[in-house]
Design goal:
Blueprint: E1 3-7, E2 10-12, E3 18-25, E4 32-38, E5 44-51, E6 58-59, E7 67-72, E8 77-82, E9 91-98, E10 108-111, E11 115-119
Parallel strand pairs: 2-11
Antiparallel strand pairs: 1-3, 3-8, 4-5, 4-9, 5-6, 7-8, 9-10, 9-11
């Protein structure tokens, strides 16, 4: 089974940056992966996705210009670099496997346990 383990969350002041990482294990084929988040009291939303088989990454409007998704195939990691954080970015952030490569909730086939980001 595929396992996803996120790290890098924490508390940061407004305007600061954080880098989230996700280590994926238990898979044999390239996967489509992404990052979602759950804002307090809201449904989960997709932020960014990338195809580990190649292709350009995609960032949703909530992530565009401030967040960057990247992958390291050698280390089997997926990162999300976040900058210019605001209190509105306070949320639980999740690494996911996608099939197909879309940011709809229906495309998520595997969730990580999540990592909390708090911006004050």
């Amino acid at each position: 089974d595929v396992q996803l383990v996120e790290s890098g969350g924490g508390s940061v002041q407004a305007g600061g940056s954080l880098r989230l990482s996700c280590v994926a294990s238990g898979y044999t084929l390239p996967m489509n992966m992404g990052w979602f988040r759950r804002l307090p009291g809201q449904e989960r939303e997709g932020l960014a996705r990338i195809s580990l088989g190649g292709g350009r990454p995609y960032h949703a409007n909530a992530a565009k210009d401030r967040f960057t998704i990247s992958q390291d195939n050698a280390r089997h990691t997926l990162d999300l670099q976040m900058s210019s954080l605001t209190p509105e970015d306070t949320a639980a952030y999740y690494c996911v496997v996608l099939n197909p490569c879309s940011l709809s909730l229906a495309s998520v086939t595997q969730w990580g346990q999540g990592t909390q980001v708090t911006v004050s």
